[in-house]
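Handout, page 2. Input:
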Amino acid sequence: MTRERSPDRPSVLVVEDDTGISEPLVTALGFLGFDAHTVATGAEALAAVRDHRPDAVLLDLVLPDLDGTEVCRLLRASGDNTPVLFLSGRHSVADKCRALALGGDDYVTKPFDLTELSARIRALIRRSRGTDPLRPLGHDTPAASRRLRAGGVELDVDTREAWRHGQPVRLSATEFALLKVLMENAGRVVSKGSILDSVWKYDFQGESGVVETYVYYLRRKLGDSGQSLIRTVRGAGYLVNADPTTERGSIGGGVGSGAGGQPIQRS
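Output:
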């Protein structure tokens, strides 16, 4: 695997023990602009991510030594937030939500369309790098420095760091993206559909369970068991409670379906 990151040819690790799938997939990804390599086991995947730092991992659920979800869990437990996209023949909502709850960032079922797969990989890498989702890889421009604050949580959009009550919180790229959307609309209800469009860019075939799973994951990391930060609005979506001292005025272009809340402060 390549040792150097390229903005124009991002590196992708394919973890798949079926060479009838992995070899043509690596070839196809090469034609689509990726520097793709493959390993066949969970142990090899963990070593490859540790040693070569790919931009994204395509991870099969069924491997000869470890289940793909266990590989992802071990990566996250080690503090590694490399974007992980699961590839699987399992189509159930329960399988998808479990994989995502254990740290995965996206889930694609087999057989898959290569054009869609490529788009999803690039979206994950953009999200991980914190770049404009509408700007092609390799053409990133610096954004104005800003921080978002609400409910005792602070996000640094540039460095992709998060704190709650001054204590650092480690978030995956997808968790950060979800919390950012909610905090950009603090005081407003954000529908599950809007969250899917904003964070995942795909509708998961209408399966909103992935949003519920990630909100649960965020609450657990942020110590929000009583929903003092992220509140469920039944039948509508989710709402981050704005700080009462937050400055008034419109953020502009919010995706929330509600109205009347105070926007968060920016600095």
